[in-house]
Amino acid sequence: MVPEVVKVGDNNASDFGYVTFSFTEVQTISFSVAVFVYGEQTKNFELTNSRLYVTSGTDALFNKDIANVTNSILVKDGYTTYHVKVTKDGYITYERILRLMN
Q1: Is residue 15 classed as helix, strand or coil in its secondary structure?
Q2: What is the DSSP letter of 68?
Q3: Is residue 93 left, alpha or beta, with left meaning phi > 0 and alpha meaning psi from -120 to 50?
């Protein structure tokens, strides 16, 4: 195969039927989350899996199951408050409002 190149001069990609688009860089913040439950057999706290939700206002930023390890979470920056909610069947839901400080 031998590619060929066509000189386009002052023309745009759309002049040849190609679609163009651009990217905008999204600023993010990251934090670590580990969820523990108290184990009656071990009489100690143990890592456990759960569901993590992160929202700000009506924007859903994170909504996934997390593993029984320390999880690195990445969400969009630019909000002043983040609502963090952790759920696990059979346990009380944990919720907290986090505020960013400059």
Answers
A1: helix
A2: S
A3: beta
Q: How far apart are the C-alpha atoms of 3 and 37, rounded to whole Å? A: 61
Residue 53 amino acid letter: Y
> Closest Cα partner for 70 from 44, 37, 33?
33
Asked if 76 and 27 count as a contact pair (C-beta separation under 8 A), the reply is yes
**Which numeric CATH code is attached to 26-99?**
2.60.40
Measured from the Cβ of residue 52, the count of other Cβ atoms closer than 10 Å reads 18
Say if pTM beats, i.e. exceeds, 0.70: yes
pLDDT in tens, 22-34: 888 999 999 999 9
**Three-state secondary-structure class, residue 62:** strand
